[in-house]
TrEMBL record:
It comes from Candidatus Berkelbacteria bacterium Licking1014_7. Residues 4-332 form the RecF/RecN/SMC N-terminal domain. Keywords: ATP-binding, Cytoplasm, DNA damage, DNA repair, DNA replication, DNA-binding, Nucleotide-binding, SOS response. GO terms for biological process: DNA replication; DNA synthesis involved in DNA repair; double-strand break repair; SOS response. This is DNA replication and repair protein RecF.
């Protein structure tokens, strides 16, 4: 998998900009020139929304009414064109000039994003870890994405009905349909998350030893809020009281265990960096399809890694197309820099 070119129109600070990356491409420039905006635009071709803004309209350049992205990529040895148009009222996605539902686009162009804020996966809110799960698994398995979308639609309806029951405006037997739908979709999500966790744990310690030179075992421990019809019945009175569903994938979480300890509580900043680097390596391996490798996006990550971890980073991602940002290309080892395309942004 390789990004051949990307055109940004009215996206963030760009009016009309064409970007043509190589195998390893380094975007160099001072803070504020728009390096991260290019990474964000590339990531758009994977998840078709901003990973930085909750309000998607914020990606449209100030004083403009629309934005458009057009990416040409080699996917499974075929040249494909992916487009995204967005204005203040609609989004339009296309593959090879044909309109598609956005859910049909996700997973076609696969990427792995590594940015400084990813360190919050260790100590941040559970929602950040669920988001990581969902983005990775939705790229790999379109069925997971469909089940995820359906689960949250059903959850919204069930919670609304719980509120009506609490207010005396509905009967409990009206929950049966939504309970069945919630369990059907929720069980699939949790089963898939468990499978991914098993995949992660098989190689996590090996990669951690390689990256850190420390002989500590790394694994993910799950905190799954199991969902089933009997459990929903058992918790019904409590759910009505809370006006919310209190079991299911929307409450799932996990934590990293390193050397038998909870990393979030006992880990050092250096261990955080190594664990997240390992997580990205495993993510890239998981998203691989035979010889079709996901594109690696590194946003100002060199500032978070020492020279040893930087060397491991380039070694582990040597087969992938890597697009990265930095304020100073001198921080990249000379032999790596010689083979890179350097793009200066002013």
């Amino acid at each position: 998998m390789k990004l051949l070119s990307l055109r940004l129109q009215n996206f963030r600070n760009y009016t009309d900009f064409v970007f043509e990356p190589d195998g390893l491409t380094v975007l160099v420039g001072k803070n504020g020139v728009g390096k991260t905006n290019i990474i964000e635009a590339i990531r758009f071709l994977t998840i078709f929304k901003s990973y930085r803004s909750k309000k998607q309209i914020e990606v449209i350049k100030w004083s403009e009414d629309w934005m458009r992205l057009e990416g040409r990529a080699k996917i499974a040895n075929k040249n494909r064109t992916l487009e995204m148009y967005q204005d203040k009222t609609q989004k339009v996605a296309k593959i090879d000039k044909v309109n598609k539902n956005i859910t049909q686009m996700i997973g076609l162009f696969r990427s792995v994003l590594f940015a400084p804020e990813d360190l919050s996966l260790v100590q941040g809110a559970p929602g950040l870890r669920r988001k990581w799960w969902d983005i990775v698994l939705s790229q790999k398995d379109r069925k997971y994405l469909k089940k995820l979308v359906m689960y949250y639609k059903v959850l919204k309806n069930r919670n609304h009905l719980l509120l009506k029951i609490f207010s005396g405006l509905a009967n409990q037997d009206e929950l049966d349909y939504w309970d069945n739908q919630l369990v059907e979709n929720g069980e699939f999500l949790q089963k898939t998350r468990r499978t991914f966790t098993e995949h992660f744990n098989k190689s996590a310690s090996h990669y951690y030893h390689t990256v850190s030179s420390e002989q500590q075992n790394l694994q993910i421990n799950l905190k799954i809020k199991d969902i089933s019809l009997p459990l929903l019945k058992e918790r019904l009175n409590f759910d009505i009281k809370m006006r919310a569903t209190t079991a299911g994938p929307h409450l799932d979480d996990f934590y990293f265990e390193l050397g038998g300890r909870d990393l979030a509580t006992f880990g050092s900043r250096g261990e955080f960096r190594s664990v997240i680097l390992v997580s990205k390596i495993i993510e890239a391996d998981f998203l691989r399809e035979e010889n079709d490798l996901p594109v690696i996006l590194l946003d100002d990550i060199l500032s978070e890694l020492d020279q040893k971890r930087r060397n491991h980073l380039f070694e582990m991602f040597g087969e992938h197309q890597v697009i990265m940002t930095t304020t100073d290309a001198a921080g990249i080892e000379e032999k790596v820099r010689k083979g890179a395309k350097i793009v200066e942004l002013n």
